[in-house]
């Protein structure tokens, strides 16, 4: 065998090795993307019910606190009325104003819950897009010439794009979680 034949064999071997490595890297990127989606789904399952439970607890605490404040106000109102009618009118006006416009802290919890829901869904969407991009790249390598010939020899098969079942297309029912 002459030097030209050896050079051609080395070039073909390097080319086939590059194709194989490209296929392996593409398949590994798909596995990595699946892991990313699993992590986001786990985050959704872990964090959403816990946040809803925390918001519900805070709402109960705030409701109990409001009820106690109103009760104390009503108790104190009677003693103030006995002491001085003028001062009771002023206190009554102030307390009614505060009661009509309470600063509800649960609102911040709801905003945080809403922001977290949005963030998790955006991360899931990004993970799905990443997965599909890697599958597209991999499938192109498996199906296009000349890498498809080598892919067939190594039994590389196309992979499906990410598609979810219709029942999984529904976001978690937050209203249902609050009523639970």
Automatic annotation (TrEMBL):
Annotated compartments: Membrane
The UniProt record lists the keyword Cell cycle: no
Membrane topology summary: Single-pass membrane protein
A matching Pfam family: LemA
Highest taxon of the lineage: Bacteria
GO CC terms: membrane
Keyword Transcription: no
Transmembrane segments: 6-24
Swiss-Prot/TrEMBL keywords: Membrane, Transmembrane, Transmembrane helix
Cited InterPro entries: LemA-like_dom_sf, MamQ_LemA
Coiled-coil blocks: none
Family: Belongs to the LemA family.
PANTHER family the UniProt entry points to: PROTEIN LEMA
Name used for this protein in its record: LemA protein
Source organism: Williamwhitmania taraxaci
Source lineage: Bacteria, Pseudomonadati, Bacteroidota, Bacteroidia, Bacteroidales
